[in-house]
Design goal:
Strand content: 15-25%
Number of helices: 13
Bound molecules: D-glutamic acid
Order of helices and strands: EHEHEHHEHEHHEHHEHEHHEHE
Strand order of the largest sheet: 4-3-1-2-9-10
Length: 273
């Protein structure tokens, strides 16, 4: 059965791109809940409800393993789904997120131990990154900074515009003013790699910009190696199928910007999720 990859909309495609580059042999089923995106400004309960519906929809289509390729969904829904819902739905299935694998690798990257997180208002309000770092006990300081204008800029095809320059500079200046010792900026939203060149341009030269896609892909490869009981349920045909809750034409036209290749999606009606 395919590996399920879920995002509120397009952003998860930046993660899927790295996963497919790392693990091209598997089949994937991508679901973007574009009709209800963005999730980043929604409440905890709503993000949880929508994410659980999406996970169930991917399970019903055969996925045994689902990756929440969305920081907002990982922040607000993953733990409840893993702890409260999976045991009832099917304890043999797995749902993984993107925050834990990202946080795990940060001690190898930072020298000052001062991390900056750029993310949606929802991910920032959840403090999930701060809590995961705290659990690791590596003595790191994190500044969590909301960038509410970046997702709309990207989705409205304004990522290369002077307007994007303004808002990238504004948020980078803002986070660096809060903690000038930051030496690593984490792109804690799966949309943000689309802005990476601009973010590099406005960040101080000594600051590293960390996009999580290839790290999530490595972590998935490691997970599959350690869990043969899940790995053997993953189909290996190299196929990718795309589902969107919005119009497929609309999805396909923007999806190629995120995935770097043509996309042909089908509609999944929210009522049938
Ligand atoms: N892809 C989402 C994330 O990584 C952001 C987009 C949204 O707000 O829905 O947080």
């Amino acid at each position: 059965m395919p590996i399920g990859v879920f995002d509120s909309g397009y952003g998860g495609l930046t993660i899927l791109k790295d996963i497919v580059a790392r693990l091209p042999e598997y089949d994937y089923l991508y679901l973007g809940d574009n009709a209800r995106a963005p999730y980043g400004t929604r409440s905890f309960d709503v993000v949880y409800d929508f994410t659980l519906q999406a996970v169930k929809a991917l399970f019903e289509r055969g996925c045994h393993l689902v990756i929440l390729a969305c920081n907002t969904a990982s922040a607000k829904a993953l733990r409840s789904i893993q702890q409260n819902d999976l045991p009832d739905i099917d304890p043999s299935r797995r749902v993984l997120g993107v925050i834990r694998p990202t946080v795990e690798v940060l001690p190898e990257i930072t020298k000052t131990k001062h991390i900056g997180l750029l993310a949606t208002p929802g991910t920032v309000a959840s403090h999930s990154y701060a809590m995961e770092l705290e659990k690791m006990g590596a003595g790191m300081v994190i500044t969590e900074y909301a960038c509410p204008m970046w997702v709309p800029l990207i989705e409205n095809r304004e990522a290369d515009s002077p307007g994007a320059d303004y808002f990238v500079k504004k948020y980078i200046d803002g986070i660096m003013a809060e903690d000038p010792e930051i030496d690593t900026l984490v792109l804690g939203c799966t949309h943000y790699p689309i802005l990476i060149e601009k973010i590099k341009q406005f960040a101080p030269d000594n600051v590293k910009i960390f996009a999580q896609g290839s790290r999530v892909a490595d972590s998935l490869a490691d997970y599959l190696r350690r869990h043969p009981e899940i790995e053997e349920k993953c189909m290996k045909g190299g196929n990718i199928e795309f589902l969107t809750t919005e119009s497929p034409d609309k999805f396909d036209s923007l999806a190629s910007m995120f995935l770097g290749r043509e996309v042909k999606s089908s509609r999944l009606l929210i009522e049938t999720m």
